[in-house]
Design goal:
By secondary structure, the chain is of the alpha+beta class. It has 2 domains: 136 residues, no CATH class; 62 residues. Helices cover 37% and strands 29% of the residues. The protein has 8 helices and 9 strands. Strands 1, 2, 3, 4, 5, 6, 7, 8 and 9 form a 9-stranded antiparallel sheet that branches. Helix 1 packs across helix 2, helix 6 packs across helix 7 and helix 7 packs across helix 8. It is globular. The model has no long low-confidence stretch (mean pLDDT 87).
Length: 211
């Protein structure tokens, strides 16, 4: 059994992925589950954002099929098929285990795991050959302070961002250093969306800590 597992983060720029282009068009972040590639070449996508206009952008994109949206507490969750093969699949083919994906202003951040040095070598070679893919970070999985907040506590990138911003801006201090409206404005989301992400992040943390 291989005991070494590494957390790896990649930054992707200049990708013509529909979600990357949509995040740039509406200037809003999009948090996505790992894309699933079907045998027919279509990619299954599931993602969420506070900006409803993402649906309009993707609805007019010829590469998108069967776009479906649900809305709860100001957060819009979409599911669809895409004809565009995501660039991250070049890394997945080599063994990159995607755990979270965030699209913002046309750029992408992919955080995942790689098991063993041989697999890591193949993933890095694939990243070097893919246009616009840059390695941001490698760290051992499970080391205190080395993993991302979302990986360590099983949060979505949006929840982790809300939690970190609230902490940094003094939301949990007495008296508060910043209120919910100010933090939401800093993140570029609505107040209700920020509070929803923060509540979900806190619930996930409490479930794990108190368990």
């Amino acid at each position: 059994m291989i005991s070494e597992c590494l957390v790896v983060e990649f930054r992707v720029t200049g990708d013509d992925c529909p979600l990357a282009e949509a995040s740039d068009a509406v200037s809003a972040p999009i948090d996505a589950a790992p894309p699933l590639l079907r045998e027919d070449g279509y990619t299954l996508l599931r993602f969420s954002t506070h900006e409803a206009a993402v649906g309009d952008v993707l609805g007019s994109d010829d590469r998108i099929r069967y776009l479906h949206r649900t809305t709860a507490d100001g957060c819009h969750t979409f599911r669809c098929l895409s004809k565009e093969r995501c660039i991250v699949h070049q890394l997945i083919d080599e063994g990159f285990l995607v755990e979270s994906v965030r699209y913002r202003d046309g750029d992408e951040r992919h955080v995942g795991a790689v098991v063993g040095q041989d697999v890591l070598h193949g993933v890095l070679e694939a990243a070097g050959e893919a246009v616009g893919v840059r390695l941001e970070r490698i760290s051992p999985l499970g080391e205190e302070g080395e993993t991302t907040v979302e990986t360590r506590w099983n949060l979505t990138p949006g929840q982790a961002e809300a939690l970190e911003a609230a902490h940094e801006m003094g939301y949990f201090e007495v008296p508060k250093g910043a209120d919910a409206a100010a933090i939401a404005a800093e993140l570029g989301v609505s107040k209700s969306a920020f509070l929803e992400r923060l509540r979900r992040a806190q619930a996930a943390l409490f479930d794990q800590v108190l368990a």
